[in-house]
Amino acid sequence: MKLICAKNELLKSVNISLKAVSSKTTMPILECILIDASATEITFTSNDMELGIETKVKGIIEEKGIVALDAKLFSDIIRKLPDSDVCIQTDTNLNTTITCEKAKFTIPGKSGDDFAYLPVIERSEGIEISQFTLKEVIRQTIFSIAANENNKLMTGELFEMKENILKVVSLDGHRIAIRKIELKNNYPSRKVVVPGKTLNEISKILSGEVEDQVKIFFTDNHIVFEFDDTVVVSRLIEGEYFRIDQMLSSDYETKVKINKREFLDCIDRATLFVKEGDKKPIIITIDDTGMQLNINSQMGSMNEEIDIDKEGKDIMIGFNPKFLIDALKVIDDEEISIYLVNPKAPCFIKNEEESYIYLILPVNFNTAR
Amino acid sequence: MKLICAKNELLKSVNISLKAVSSKTTMPILECILIDASATEITFTSNDMELGIETKVKGIIEEKGIVALDAKLFSDIIRKLPDSDVCIQTDTNLNTTITCEKAKFTIPGKSGDDFAYLPVIERSEGIEISQFTLKEVIRQTIFSIAANENNKLMTGELFEMKENILKVVSLDGHRIAIRKIELKNNYPSRKVVVPGKTLNEISKILSGEVEDQVKIFFTDNHIVFEFDDTVVVSRLIEGEYFRIDQMLSSDYETKVKINKREFLDCIDRATLFVKEGDKKPIIITIDDTGMQLNINSQMGSMNEEIDIDKEGKDIMIGFNPKFLIDALKVIDDEEISIYLVNPKAPCFIKNEEESYIYLILPVNFNTAR
């Protein structure tokens, strides 16, 4: 095999491929990027058996061939090369020479025979949204998936199509995040659960541009994202996702409109007194004079008042400040509405159209105090 | 005590004070910043018993007093306050209330009675250089002090005054870094060894501006840096520093002029094949065709050629690539000169005026291969 590619093209493709390279595996071939130049195009493939990525690389094939190279070493070499044309050439033992200007690297290659190629997926009924939208939707929901694997379904996100709406849901037992996107067409009803890791990795590859599109296809076991020169295939998480509709009520006793920035900064200051792993709640008191935030810990105490627009009853309620911060950070609105029922019922942060809904369970602050 | 200071002034002074706060100590008072507003000025003092810093803070004293506050908590609070005037007030129990706009923090304070004030140092015969120069000199030498404390003197840097020259030297047994600065006046001969930690911390506080000056005073046991509104006092390291003059010879068999950037980039690429803790040398071959760099490891091999101007004999010599990289990174010259004698003798990288000299011992590459 002999290829000539610009350093920048290689680097772009290598960075994309790295997202699906296994870091801890007993199969060394999964630590490789497969370079396939056996036909008319150069493709890089990586696959950690849950997530697989195939991306096309611009370049010239001077001699056809296939080789698998250690992904970390290959990417480190490409990254440090001068900004010029790079020649990648294998000998009969798959020893691979990478030459750029006067620098010449030689590393061992592996045959592609053992490589786990991506499954062949029949694409039908794909939805199409902008890369910007997909990236935003992931950012605005991914923080509330569960970190541990006790409940596999909680480590993923529900993607639900219904008519012309894509609904994305994540939850971890303490909170729920929901984003709704309007699609251009109507689609048959469908629910799948996509691994959080897949979404994290894909959002790093997406350009985030409004004009760039991404096509999404579904099969029984896989989800496929197609964009630019790249195809990402991920396994789905099996099982039926949680029924969240019964948790979403539109009744409330107190409604508060508040400046998001002020609220977020104030909670952020309060967390100074919360040590890692500590379950110290922030206590919010809402009455006709405004909203008051309090936190008390061994280290000290803080209180601060914020102006609000209030409708309905007075209330005093406690929250894990992290859960409020996580939700507030991803909301782009300057002013937000908070809906409360009583100190033991979840609060909702949502907009009028309900294009986003964040549900957060309160903390019993009398005992926690 | 009651003070009013702008948030930014407080933050600046807190950040300076933090550099001399003990992180691991059995004396909680050393984890504090002492706020002294007992007279007409506000000063913050911190002292880890080796390094002490006193800095003046702009602000208004409404009620005189002294309090010691936990440095980390105090700095975290100041950092997160809105950009406005801050009121710091203590009650009779030294509980301290920090108020800024509508935010109000309360933290416990300590009396200043147990605080280790800075030693009173008589200032005489101080040298004066620009903050830029001092910061540069530290940056260009600090990397070659020894990391471990086996030999205390190697963890510091020699500051030697002689006539109108300040010479700064660091060494770790494998290499020596020397910088010479011309002073405005002549000074009596003097040698002191300044702890590396002191120099690291002070270079973080220095503005680095050419117009800003720093005065340096010496006593038998201390060095004092005075600049802006800040005084830094550090203990010196006791003992007689190594005699390096006998190691510095101006004889050479081979002299090479080389583009620094090219040389550095090339060695940087070669280090891809050097794992952490590995003693793999880079082998440099110099002959009439140029300089060739080679590295061989289990992971693979690299070689690269660089154009040079050569005088004298051909040579093949091995180096720890890290030592070359460390020196090359801090040299500002575009083209550098390397002086070599034989594969077992140290190489010198220095300029004509010898305002900088880097000595690096070679590695025996035949056995290491």
TrEMBL record, chains A, B:
DNA polymerase III beta sliding clamp N-terminal domain: residues covered: 1-118
Alphabetical keyword list: Cytoplasm, DNA replication, DNA-binding, DNA-directed DNA polymerase, Nucleotidyltransferase, Transferase
DNA polymerase III beta sliding clamp central domain ranges (all copies): 129-241
Domain DNA polymerase III beta sliding clamp C-terminal: 248-363
GO molecular function ontology, one term from the record: DNA binding
Known role: Confers DNA tethering and processivity to DNA polymerases and other proteins. Acts as a clamp, forming a ring around DNA (a reaction catalyzed by the clamp-loading complex) which diffuses in an ATP-independent manner freely and bidirectionally along dsDNA. Initially characterized for its ability to contact the catalytic subunit of DNA polymerase III (Pol III), a complex, multichain enzyme responsible for most of the replicative synthesis in bacteria; Pol III exhibits 3'-5' exonuclease proofreading activity.
Identification of the protein by name: Beta sliding clamp
Organism of derivation: Oliverpabstia intestinalis
